[in-house]
Amino acid sequence: MNFFVDFPVLADVNGDDRQEILVGTSRFGSVEGGDLFGQFFALKCIKKSGKCKDFKELWSFSDGTVFGESPSVDDLNNDERKEVIFITAGGPNSNGIVYAFDADKRGGFRL
């Protein structure tokens, strides 16, 4: 079985003037066995003595497939709040899908 983490993106998506860590993880074995799984995370750094010592999960997402690329961040609907945009790589029986969520994982939609 193989495991990989996409390149993380640092961005202040919730407007608190502190950057969140946005990253997708995936593991896969044989495609024939259907052993594909991925999860996307929005993480907050917990600092101690000015250094990041731990992470708090703000939210996560999985649709049963693996994640294809690093996420992007932008205000897609002009509401002055940033959305997190990411793509799944798909699986044996599906194409990749582009998703977008706001900073609180509300209003998630497929593009």
Question: Can you walk me through this structure?
Answer:
The chain has 111 residues and is mainly beta. It has one domain (2-110). Helices cover 0% and strands 54% of the residues. It has no helices and ten strands. It has strands at 2-5, 9-11, 20-28, 36-48, 51-61, 66-67, 72-74, 83-90, 98-102, 109-110. Strands 1, 2, 3, 4 and 5 form a five-stranded antiparallel sheet that branches. Strands 6, 7, 8, 9 and 10 form a five-stranded antiparallel sheet that branches. It is flat and about 45 Å long.
Helix/strand layout:
Blueprint: E1 2-5, E2 9-11, E3 20-28, E4 36-48, E5 51-61, E6 66-67, E7 72-74, E8 83-90, E9 98-102, E10 109-110
Antiparallel strand pairs: 1-3, 2-3, 3-4, 4-5, 6-8, 7-8, 8-9, 9-10
